[in-house]
């Protein structure tokens, strides 16, 4: 047991993945990576080691089959089935056998070697986009090694789990031990593990760098899943503060149910719309619980990640249909595929800066079949959900891209109609405002779009010239920067002049005070991670639209981030 007297209170910052505050002892989970044998085996031991490999495969597969039977989450089922398919892969079997028999490697060394090569190929060809897949494959390797060495873990009941990263399989396995919360060094709010944690309502902070180095098992920890904060060795006054917040949280949670039934109106009656950003159907349970008014951003990249062939239109139609059925009667905004094509087609040439490279609409226009298949799937789905689908175009930077896309949409519509397929011919086409050229010329782009959606995450890094993944300059990345507010104002005014809706779907909308400021700028449709919907709604209902306009006016006059921080810190929820 750590002696709290001997330690100074420490704060670790990460990203909020599932809200909730918990206080408890930590259990440090490091996937058991047994010492890998570095000696060779004798010829007469080869068969025994091959037998051990197949025994480990059988045990691991049995474990996954049990998980598969006990889950009704479609996307999680896909992930588990993917892991089972890898375990059954004849090529994996042949390569491990070859390592053992031809090179006289012990079974653990053979497994380590083959999986290392496999993961290296993934990293070289797919980069960070396939991080989720890499985590799942590493999980299979480590589980096989654990079984081979007969190693377990020492996770205690009712503790806060601290790990470098977690796979969905691990989270589900540990949930039976009543874990209070989850802290990971790596990962983001849209990782598979974070989504599973949210679906199970486990307070979670991800991307808390070096948490596993700072926190030891049995250390007392405060986890604040609302803002991504972790406090290690909390002082008495800190603990008391968070114990009080936990009591308030319990009361607030009870209030949320009644809050969600109240109309989405400011204190002086101005209506607003709150929607959810989602990627998986499982996220809709929380979105519906908190009465989201549809999906403001449906990310479609997971279709490729969870299905072997993105070109399979039926798979896409089934995915879109499931989302639309679960959100009736609300609108669903489907964002076109937003990943660089080099991450999917194995091009040899690597990009120095993929965030500024061949991605979004740029890639789609040069991969017309990929684009056309997605449009076919969307329009085929639309016939059963007339008036409920919108299409959102990512990474737009030039008018020519819009003209080319509209021509392709026209072709797809004519093709499907000629085939006798019922479609919605009037699906609104919207543009992501995330590249500065679009924000600066918003009035022009607004004349050629049915709606605009501001993606503050990318807009911020492009405007401030800050790579948000670069730790050395991450302190410069802040979506509340004065320049961002000025650009948002310009886009909002362009929408009003051209009589088209403008929404915000970036992380800025998830901050209740920032959401109030966005309302003050004239943006009354906000889309966010579903878990923060109640807190944003509570804030927007607490103030009048006139007060929000005054806040926005002061923010636009602010010269520094400190000025804006001071304005925000003085803005409190009314009772």
What is the CATH class of the largest domain?
Alpha Beta
Structural class: alpha/beta
Strand content: 5-15%
Strand order of the largest sheet: 1-8-7-3-4-5-6-2
Shape: globular
> Which ranges are low-confidence, i.e. pLDDT below 50, for 5 or more consecutive residues?
1-5, 341-348
Quaternary structure state of the chains depicted:
single chain
Describe the structure concisely.
The protein is an alpha/beta fold and 575 residues long. The two termini are 41 Å apart. It is globular, with a radius of gyration of 25 Å.
Describe this structure in words.
There is one protein chain. With 575 residues, this protein is α/β, with parallel strands linked by helices. The chain has three domains: 4-31 and 153-250, Phosphohistidine domain (Glucose Oxidase, domain 1, 3-Layer(bba) Sandwich), CATH 3.50.30; 45-149, Enzyme I, Chain A, domain 2 (Orthogonal Bundle), CATH 1.10.274.10; 270-569, TIM Barrel. Helix content is 50%, strand content 13%. The chain has 24 helices and 16 strands. The chain has helices spanning 46-69, 74-88, 90-103, 107-126, 131-149, 168-175, 192-199, 211-214, 236-261, 284-289, 301-306, 313-327, 342-345, 360-366, 368-382, 399-418, 436-440, 442-446, 456-464, 482-497, 512-520, 533-542, 545-557, 561-569; strands spanning 10-13, 15-18, 21-29, 160-163, 181-184, 204-206, 220-224, 229-232, 273-278, 295-298, 332-335, 389-393, 429-433, 451-454, 502-504, 525-528. The protein has an eight-stranded mixed β-sheet with strand order 1-8-7-3-4-5-6-2. The chain has an eight-stranded parallel beta barrel with strand order 9-10-11-12-13-14-15-16. Helix 3 (90-103) crosses helix 4 (107-126), helix 4 (107-126) packs antiparallel against helix 5 (131-149) and helix 21 packs across helix 22 (533-542). The longest helix is centred in the middle third of the chain and has 26 residues, at 236-261. The radius of gyration is 25 Å and the shape is globular. The two termini are 41 Å apart. The model is unreliable at 1-5 and 341-348 (pLDDT under 50).
